[in-house]
């Protein structure tokens, strides 16, 4: 597992919005798990744009 991590692979439980898929020659790789990935992408992009989640008073 350490060698795989050192090569840039994620060896732990898949994050929300991703799942593991077996790919020939590479083993298990993370791929987007729709529709969860798209649902989580919206708030993440808004946060990067500087949009606040707080409502004005």
Annotation field: number of helices: 2
Helix residue percentage: 25-40%
Q: How many domains?
A: 1
Stretches where pLDDT is under 50 for at least 5 consecutive residues are: none
Terminal-residue CA separation: 50 Å
Shape: elongated
Q: How much of the sequence is in beta strands?
A: 15-25%
Radius of gyration: 16 Å
Q: Which H/E pattern describes the elements? A: HEEH
Specify the structural class.
alpha+beta
Order of adjacent strands in the largest pleated sheet: 1-2
Biggest beta-sheet profile? 2 strands, antiparallel
| Number of strand elements | 2
Q: Report mean pLDDT, rounded to a whole number.
A: 82
What can you tell me about this protein's structure?
It is built from two helices and two strands. It is an alpha+beta fold. It has one domain (2-49). A two-stranded antiparallel ribbon has the order 1-2. The longest helix has 14 residues, at 36-49. The chain is elongated, with a radius of gyration of 16 Å. The relative contact order is 0.14. The model has no long low-confidence stretch (mean pLDDT 82).
């Amino acid at each position: 597992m350490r060698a795989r991590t050192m090569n840039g692979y994620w060896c732990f439980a898949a994050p929300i919005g991703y799942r593991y898929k077996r790919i020939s020659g590479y083993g298990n790789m993370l791929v987007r798990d729709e529709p969860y990935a798209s649902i989580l992408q919206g708030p993440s992009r808004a946060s990067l744009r500087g949009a606040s989640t707080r409502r004005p008073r």
